[in-house]
Amino acid sequence: MHVPDAGSPRVFLVITTFNRAALLRELLDSIAALEPAPAGVVVVDNASTDATGDVLADAHLPVPLFVERLPVNVGGSGGFAAGVARALEEGADWLWLMDDDVVALPDALASFAPWMGRYSCIHGRRYDAAGRPFFWQHVLDEFTGVHFPVRGDVFAASPVFHTNVACFEGMLVAADVVREIGLPDARFFLNGDDLTYGWLVSQRYPVAYVDAFVLRKTRAQRQVDLGVRHLNESSDLSRFCGMRNRGYLARYLRLHGRYHRVGFGLGTLLSAGKELVRLLAVERSVSGASQVWRGWRAARVILRDPDWQPEPPLRDPAGRTGRS
């Protein structure tokens, strides 16, 4: 098991933002109140066209702020890939990834500290915008390629719940693990990139979800609890990417000998059905159904691409650094 050095870790926050200047300001203000403070903050501006640049220019943090301004919007996955790469260049030992629509709780890093000597990929709990616990407890079923919710209190018997998926809205990961696994796959653009990344990590190291609140969401989302699943509101782009990115997930499953053609096909049907239920139950519309079909067809192209390659590691097993 990988056990990182937690003696005096250099924790860098990595934030991806796009046209949410007001929310980003709230997040940066919360970072200024962190105790202990991180070693640095990397913000990836995904070609924002609002006042994001002004917010970053006016930011006053007690730690170094590094801004990566991208010329085009490369999505959440591309933004996190750029931000993680920059944080590694700046000497990060740990990377705490998050979107721009959360705030960090003041004692977040202190809450993580007891777990950093035991795990190298950790998630803390989140509150939603109303201050209620945000539901995030899933496990990827490799047969179907679908992440299913785990019902009940996962912390009833233990303060840690082991999973095999990740969430870039709060994942804390050791730099050595990132070098071994590689950067987040920018081809996902959004939706499913973090789930897949967590699964890749879980093939080598435990992925932990711990009973400690570290973030609060600031953007309210419509959602419905169907008993067997929580569904949040989405978008046509997210629907398309969610279905298309099953093609990338299938390639990674196949790479590790975990792809089951029949089971994955069933999972694709379930995923399409979930999106249709989301449209009806949460968004009260069927106008996005065509994006589900478009994404499904795009996934089939990816699955059949003879030139597809996985995201390469940043360090090979012999310990040499650099990308191949």
Q: Give the CA-based shape.
A: globular
Helix content: 25-40%
What Rg is obtained from the alpha carbons, in whole angstroms? 19 Å
In angstroms, what separates the terminal alpha carbons? Answer: 26 Å
CATH architecture of the largest domain: Alpha-Beta Complex
Major sheet description: 9 strands, mixed
Query: In percent, how much strand structure appears in the residues?
Result: 15-25%
> Strand-and-helix sequence, N→C?
EHEHEHEEHEEEEEHHEEEHHHH
Number of continuous helical runs:
10
pLDDT averaged over residues? 91
Q: Which CATH C-level class of the largest domain is it?
A: Alpha Beta
Number of strands: 13
Structural class: alpha/beta
Q: Could you name the CATH topology of the largest domain?
A: Spore Coat Polysaccharide Biosynthesis Protein SpsA, Chain A
Tally of domains: 2
Enumerate the spans where pLDDT stays under 50 for 5 or more consecutive residues: 1-6, 317-324
